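FYI - complex with iron/sulfur cluster, inputs then prediction.
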Amino acid sequence: MNEQQRKEMNQINQANPADIKSDQEENLDRLKNIDSDELIGKYFQTTYEPPNLKKAKKRRREDVKIHYDYQVPEDMANIGKDKKFLIRTYGCQMNEHDTEVMAGLLTDMGYQSTDNAQEADIILLNTCAIRENAENKVFGEIGHLKTLKTENPDVILGVCGCMSQEESVVNRILKKHPFIDMIFGTHNIHRLPQLLKEAMFGKEMVVEVWSKEGDIIENLPKVRKGKIKGWVNIMYGCDKFCTYCIVPYTRGKERSRRPEDIIQEVRQLAAQGYKEVTLLGQNVNAYGKDLTDIEYGLGDLMDEISKIDIPRVRFTTSHPRDFDDRLIEVLAKGGNLLDHIHLPVQSGSSEVLRVMARRYTRERYLELVDKIRTAMPNATLTTDIIVGFPNETDEQFEETLSLVEEVGFESAYTFIYSPREGTPAARWEDNIPMEVKKERLQRLNKLINKQSAEAMKKYEGQTVKVLVEGESKKNPDVLAGYTERNKLVNFKAPTSAIGKIVEVKITNAKTWSLDGEMVEDAVEVK
Ligand code: 5AD
Ligand code: SF4
């Protein structure tokens, strides 16, 4: 911060909340007239650096400090009294969970949550950068927010999450959408109270995006979305640098939480009556690698968590390269560790996997699947697949289809490759036309649908344990929940069954869900 900025901040600190409206209106008028390049030069005052493979790869295993003493600043603790917030979340479960933390921070500041944008005093877009269409959706939403801002200049609009970590996105917002009040990155979430203060009392758009990851802050408040299933971060970041993927840049280097902190959080969830936890990380199998003082991996962690009295434990996402024997041995013991494994393969061709820098071959992946199947004969395997990676040949795509059949994936998230600025693959020439890529995606989806339907069919007549989550989204007369193997089940039952694990007899199988009848009236089973 330079002297001028410091002065401005002091003025901000001393501002009277009663002046906020006039300040904001003034701000909006001024922004309408400002030259956008000037805006970028003047106000883009961050330590931001665009994704840089060489630099990012050289990042070191510096010690990550862990803080247990976080507090919302006193002068912001009541700022949200009688005010409301709305957070729109895009992308993965990690983002969903970050939203829970931001909701916690805002709640600690006195705000209440709302689903209605018209009555919100703060609207945050928690964004995803993984593919271009995810970004397009967000820019569409930003466009809609302009009308809202014009009608209500008091509303504070913020863009956060993975897109904020990209220089091109920040520049585009500064240039084309100057009515946005703040942009902050994935490493700046805990700074939300301070950033909000700057946005409310200051005149400029607030931009804070650290390209270098920060410390781990353990005691950030959270308002969880539900009371049945909870997410628990076990690690942050990714050091794998697959050549197509933006995540190692937007989420920073791998940092593991201490086992005792994770275990305590899972215990707390169990004590609060949660029925399921999902342990989260971009690459959970790398858990513990950066904990230099202990020899401790995901297998060890899962082993300890299996002893906690919580009925269901899942984890996502796995990387085949780091999936070790210890983990398989622990998962094979069963109990509350569910035998549904999401194991992204990305491609069935060893050559494509090599250029993707996945660091395993088709054969190694199949060996791993064999190992898992031997230890857990009933395990359900699901995956992620990218089609149309630069220069992927027809033969290489056929190898993906044959791998899907050989493994027998019961479902898969499938994507057309989307070039992400700053990643190595985005710089490569690509001779595969989009039409061909779309055709491949269709063929792949057809195969996955067929395999999913076949897997579902096997459940007809069987009785399964369902964790009841609530009314079905499509039909409020019907309740919906998931089996241990993550199959969606719809069935008629009294609402008293919500939040319980009940037995359901499957009467009809569809491609992506099962219909059934509850065996006993809301009798909980474990
Ligand atoms: N294009 C298409 N799909 C991608 N994924 C990650 N990056 C890209 C990209 N650039 C997919 C991978 C990953 C999932 C979360 O998203 O399959 O496993
Ligand atoms: Fe991206 Fe996953 Fe590869 Fe990490 S392991 S770079 S998050 S695809």
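The chain has three domains: 21-208, 220-457, 463-518. The domain at 21-208 is CATH 3.40.50.12160 (Rossmann fold).
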